[in-house]
Design a protein that fits this description.
By secondary structure, the protein is of the alpha/beta class. It has 7 helices and 7 strands. The chain has a 7-stranded parallel beta sheet, sandwiched between helices. Helix 1 links the parallel strand 1 and strand 2. Helix 1 packs across helix 7, helix 3 packs parallel to helix 4 and helix 4 packs parallel to helix 5.
Length: about 240
């Protein structure tokens, strides 16, 4: 009986996370869809995957800022197929926090989802991944290097994930590889208040390839890092040249 590697992707019911799950599934991964609120989308994805290949996907609901729920998700993920080979830390909170208007709740929401959760998930799964020579892939952002106006807390959090990726690559070697993917403009934010057509056009002018990227560009990069067994501690930027 053929066995498949198992990927746990956080925040994977929608958008980039869903694209990563779909692509990994086509590459013969069993996938675990994590979601918080997007239950219908998560269950629909699982149904699609299982219709294509029986018993190849399931979903887990968890509020990852709650440590007990994070542990529950990890335990459920390990138990379902007997292990996890790949952790993709994709779940993220993104919205502006202008100086003078942000508060402690903003800090907790943004730093928790973007930095604290990936670290503790990596810690919870480190032994499991080590036993299976697995890997961790963190979704970062080009704004970990070049700040985005009025998004200081988000940029700080993503910068922390960048350093976490490098640090864990050293600490978990040689049995766990840790890498990152740093997207540029791939999808307009789902809450794109203030992103007028003019603002979007100006942003596209900053990109040498003069267009948004595709979610499949990110998904293929994640897969490349997942199967490249001699790459660790690297962050691949996928931004159409915007960071040049």
């Amino acid at each position: 009986m053929e066995t498949y590697p198992v990927a746990l992707i956080t925040g994977s019911a929608r958008r980039i996370g869903a694209a990563i799950a779909k692509y990994l599934h086509t590459q013969k991964y069993n996938v675990i869809i994590h979601y918080r609120n997007s239950e219908l989308e998560a269950k629909d994805l699982v149904a699609q995957f299982n219709a294509t290949r029986s018993n190849s996907a399931f979903c887990i609901k968890a509020e990852l800022s709650n440590y007990a729920e994070m542990v529950m998700m990890v335990d459920g993920a390990k138990a379902h197929w007997g292990g996890v080979d790949l952790l993709v830390n994709n779940a993220s909170t993104f919205y502006p926090t202008p100086i003078g208007k942000s508060n402690l709740d903003d800090w907790d929401k943004i730093v928790d989802s973007n930095a604290k959760v990936p670290f503790y998930l990596s810690q919870l799964l480190s032994t499991e991944l080590s036993n299976r020579n697995g890997s961790i892939i963190n979704m970062i952002d080009i704004h970990a290097n070049a700040p985005l106006a009025e998004h200081t807390i988000y940029c700080m959090a993503k910068s922390a994930v960048k350093m976490m990726t490098l640090s864990l690559a050293k600490e978990l070697a040689p049995t766990v590889r840790v890498n990152g993917v740093s997207p540029g403009a791939i999808l307009w934010p789902s809450n794109d208040v203030g992103l007028t057509d003019e603002v979007k056009a100006n942003l596209l002018q900053e990109i040498p390839l003069a267009r948004l990227g595709s979610v499949i560009d990110i998904a293929k990069t994640v897969h490349f890092l997942a199967v490249s067994t001699y790459i660790t501690g690297q962050i691949i930027t996928v931004d159409g040249g915007r960071s040049l």
